[in-house]
Amino acid sequence: MVDGRSVLLLRASLLSLGVGFLGAAPSFATDTPASAVEATTKDVVGEVRKLRENPQLGSLPPDMLRDLEKVAGSGDTSALVLLGELYGDGKLVPADPAKSFAAFEQAAQLDSIWGKIHLGRSYISGLGVDADVDRGLALIQEVAETGNGSALQALGELYSRGGPVPVVGDKALDYYQKAAAAGSDSAYVRIGELYRDGGAVSPDPSKAFAAFEQAAQLGNTWGKINLGRAYVSGLGVEADVGRGVALIEEVAATGNGSALQALGELYSRGGPVAVDGGKALDYYEKAAAAGSDSAYVRIGELYRDGGVVLADPAKAFAAFEQAAQLENAWGKINLGRAYISGLGVTSDVERGVALIEEVAATGNAGALQTLGELYSSGGAIPVDGAKALDYYERAAAAGSDSAYVRIGELYRDGGVVPADPRKAFAAFERAAQLGNAWGKIHLGRAYIGGLGVQPDVERGLSLIKEADIAAGWVMIGGYRSQGIVVEADRDAALEAYQKAADKGDVYALVRLAEAYRDGGLTDRDPERSIGLFQRAIDAGHVSARRILGESHLRGRFGARSSRDEGLTLLRQAQSLGDQSAPVTLANLYLYGTGVPKDVNRALELLAEAASGGNSSAAKTLISFYRDGRGRDVPKNLSKASAALSSSEGAFSPLDLMREKLLLSVASAQSSGRISAVLDEIRAAPPVIASPIIASLRHVNANAYVYFLQQELRDRGMYNGPINGLLTRQTIRAVGTLCSTSKTPGQCSYGPLHSRSANAVLKLLDGI
């Protein structure tokens, strides 16, 4: 999700990138006296600019548009530029790229600085005119050579944002510095962002802080907001959350939509500022009322995702629809996804895809990448590897470094496109070169695992550390705690998790809480563990409340465990939309853990949650009847089938396919039926086929053995009958497979033991 500032900057820099070519500029005759024209110009241009600050207006009154066109026809450059902007962004009048281009061209011919800048951007984008990047740059450089700060800053934008003009960090920084010297306070903001984010230039928190501070001292609103964020996060300065929030609140008190939205971000994202759904929603609603269309996007995301506020699909849809009506690109993208998934509306896949394609047609990297996601993830839209790859490549060309990450993942994982380790490595390397933190992490993992390159563990670990994001430190913590690829080191693991937690990673807080709860990495400390869980809850971790509640009920805190606290926490988690909470409660009641044993209550909890659309509860209820839970819940395929039929609406298309296949496996008795179902599973998308195969042992042991016999036969390790019976010949064949493992001891527990089964499936996958 792009933040409010990014949306505004993109709108400013791309405003005329949606223009076209009309031919001759519009001309309107006028016999109005000169003094009257001057007064009319000021009145009309001023009034229209005020209306543009309120995007919720909907449309410009026709008489006002006629007045503006009349003033523009008199040759007034400010009116021409404004007219070009209006027809370019299509917010108050229907978008007309041709008229937009013509207005900018006429303004430029009349020597308007902004006319030339906008016209240059139009040529660079190639929208409404044949693309001519050199001509566009020349027009803007012509103005910049006069020392004009706006033109210098426009060049900084072009060389730092990516797109038709390649990113050149040094050039961008030079232009921004010249713009700042020419009096542009917003240039200091962009300098700060470059040093904060890295990629275009090497990150430098101290220089970022200094630039934001300079912009703030000059009264720049975004300088104050970013300076506040720097104090909150400790970017280039000692963290001071109170001072940071106060700086942003000072701007918000003026009714500034961006500051209001920034506060919404702080109270909804988690980190140094504790999550407060009520405050976050209030700030976003105020930001929307102040004219921020992107605030509607965030409101929609909150209601879609739940956790921060109670999930409400209908409200999510309404918010995305409002953002889309205000021409917000991410509003349209999310509205499209809502139609595709049926979020708060009857599913309409074609309409959803069309909405996203409409945005993608403008060259929007986010829309192109979203289409790549849709065609690579499966679900309502069938997987199409070629389309997915094409959209990702176009998104990368449009400036999305994260698109290179997805290209690398596709080539790494295979399935959607044929696996190609070298292409995966190259894509991750490109993303890393562009400063993408996940690109560095994936590149590091490629070096560690030897994916498309000679293994180099030290270089891989160095890259993950260089990324310096919370997720990377969590990985380092995992490596150090489990002794994977490096020697186990409890202290180093704790240090890594702490670094991740200090960066606001709530998962790291949970890992630390679990470490102090269970021991292993450090001595057990129940009070400290509970405190860390509470911090994770305050920071918005969706599952922390449930995990803490379950820990109390299972007595994981020893004498400090509290049944009442545990039940309260689990019920709160359920009311806040944690889909796993009713599943956890049901399992506790089923086995009488921390609560009186009550099998009927367990089944009621699951059935009630499933009827409300909770897919996790529906899956669990179906599995209870499909696989059985001992004497408490006997296996009953009829009840499993009924549970699936009554909760089909809770599942995505892929999840529904998975549940139906698992039920087919459970009911397969004859060799012929088992063989047919296994063929169906192999024909299913890999994203569901692999988990089903991993579940075979629990669902139907004979089907699991049948699968093993087929796979071992195909590898020349078994030549006995394919019948699903665990014969000595089958066991010997499994032993032959296990002898190829570097750790054959994992197979010593017996073919149907979980450890052995996991090891065997990994070996089969790797052959």
TrEMBL record:
InterPro entries: Sel1-like (IPR006597), Sel1_AlgK (IPR050767), TPR-like_helical_dom_sf (IPR011990). Residues 1-29 form the signal peptide. It comes from the Bacteria. The keyword Lyase does not apply. Gene3D superfamilies: Tetratricopeptide repeat domain. Keywords: Signal. This is Uncharacterized protein. It comes from Pseudorhizobium banfieldiae. The lineage of its organism: Bacteria, Pseudomonadati, Pseudomonadota, Alphaproteobacteria, Hyphomicrobiales.
